[in-house]
Amino acid sequence: xxxxYYLRLIFRVMLVFSLSMNxxxxxxxxxLSGGSISDGLDLSNIRVGEHRGYTRIVFDVKYWEGYxxxxxxxxxxxxxxxxxxxxxxxxxxxxxxxxxxxxxxxxTTQGIVRTIKRLRGEAYGDDSSVFYQIILRxxxxxxxxxxxxxxxxxxxxxxx
Length: 160
Fold this sequence. Notes:
Blueprint: H1 3-24, E1 28-35, E2 41-51, E3 54-63, E4 81-87, E5 91-97, E6 99-102, E7 107-108, E8 113-119, E9 129-136, E10 140-147, E11 152-159
Parallel strand pairs: 2-6
Antiparallel strand pairs: 1-4, 2-3, 3-11, 4-5, 5-9, 7-8, 8-9, 10-11
């Protein structure tokens, strides 16, 4: 193993530690969760829509395509378990449990939602969960619910 390898490894560990420390310093303002325990899901897409008085984020849920599952790539009949934690620094930490993959792309918008990005690294290395961070431009309140046929998790964000 080369010196560069060890330097990159040290840098990654420091980055993950720094991210986890920054997130743990924030006090939660609102925590919402729902769904049910599951496994073998894929977060296939994220859509953002601006509406009168609120912004809606839709997380589409499909079956994971790993290991040749018979329902791979089709809409799930379960949304898994989800948790949204709104912090006082205008970020939302998101955990989707029961998800083996997330094919959804990171998003940048001009509205109240600045960015939606997937978190990766040792602190987020659980093989049955995926983690996202939503960075907001203003103080907000949240409402979350889920729907089926097709399966999706809906997050409504309203300005205070």
